[in-house]
Amino acid sequence: MATPAELAACRAVGTLYNALMTALVLGLVTRRGEEAAREYVFRHFRHQHLEKFLPGLHKLGLAEQPPAPACALYHYHSNALGGVKTGYHRESDRKAWVRYPPPRWIWRGAAIAAAPHSVSAAMLHGWHGRNGQSLGKPNLGFVCTGMTVDGMPGLEGYYFEYDRPLAENERVRFAYGQEEMPRIDWAAQPKLEMASWPEERRLKVFRAYAVEYLRTMLPTLQQQLGADDAQKELGRVARLVGLQFHEETAHDMDLPTDVERGDLQSARAFARWLSNVLKAQGEEVEIRGQDVVMNGWRAVRELKLADPLKAFDAWNELWLGAAAAHDRFLAVHTTRSLGDSGWSIAWRIAPR
Q: How far apart are CA 81 and CA 60, in angstroms?
């Protein structure tokens, strides 16, 4: 059985990477423009679609369903596994609805007010509109009847099998005000076995869901912007997320924050926070005095990164920001190297 602190660390991983995804997209909107953010979201969800959709369909036991219900159920169940509330309605074998009611996971809190229509829609173009191609069903499309970012009570729409193959620009269609998802009984929605899982197992799945955003983010951003600019943009928002969310996650783990002592006791307290979060992420970590040592970097295993060290340095800003929020009179010295035997990483936390 996991301890309360271990469960809190799992929640922290989800909180931090949820915030990192949101911050990155909104940072691109404000610093590089709506088109750059739209392109990133499209690439991100296209990458996840290619990697996850067909294997997930089989894993969820949906491969024998008609295409439209199979796709809607895939999004319903996969989002539920990640802790995202989703609704489903099967209208027929050729038409099935999926709905993501507020609050939207990706636009937590007031962030939704800064998300442009085109950036939110890019998720649909990158994933929902591509399902038919992956299934060998070029006549399957997605009709969006509303998005929360446009002030509607949820992102919703339906998969539909047409009588002809669809052109690329027809795979996602917007039909606001023409239809809406029928009323559903939340108590009667389809359920996976996970409904009876203990909190520990559900949190571990939620953690894995959030870490997948990081695993997609690192290569996708380098491919779009190049390694230098990817480090600049991701590192900037990672530091802000660490600053902004350290207190919330530390309190949940019953650890101190905003200490301002700049002594060894404070350094060791932050080392516990960092070690807890990294272990919850699935890393092999130990504390040696005032050092946090990580054996390898499992979160990026098998990723093809144009520049792994620059990806690490961007990610590391998350922990440097958190350290500054914990105690601004501490210094964190990071050592990292990547050789034939893998990653060697350590953080020395000390008074400055």
A: 11
Could you tell me how many helices (H) and strands (E) the chain has, helices first? 9, 9
Q: Six-digit token pair at 171?
A: 């795979």
**Per-residue pLDDT tens digits for 133-166:** 999 999 999 999 999 999 999 999 999 999 999 9
Quick count: other Cβ atoms within 10 Å of Cβ 228? Answer: 11
> What DSSP string describes 220-285?
HHHHHH-HHHHHHHHHHHHHHHHHHHHHHHHHHTT---S----SHHHHHHHHHHHHHHHHHHT--E
**C-alpha to C-alpha distance for 175 and 184, rounded to whole angstroms:** 20
Identify any residues that bridge with 262 across adjacent strands, giving them in sequence order.
none
Q: Cα separation of 193 and 202, whole Å? A: 11
DSSP assignment string, 291-340:
EEEEES-GGGTT---S-HHHHHHHHHHHHHHHHHHH-TTEEEEEEEEEET
Which three-class secondary structure state does DSSP give residue 133? helix
Each residue's pLDDT tens digit, 55-112:
999 998 999 999 999 999 999 998 887 778 899 999 999 999 999 999 998 998 999 9
Structure confidence by residue, pLDDT tens digits, 324-336: 999 999 999 999 9
SS3 content of the chain, % helix, strand, coil (to 5): 55, 15, 25
Q: Which of 270, 286, 268, 279 is nearest to 325 (CA)?
A: 270
C-alpha 39/C-alpha 141 separation (Å) is 21
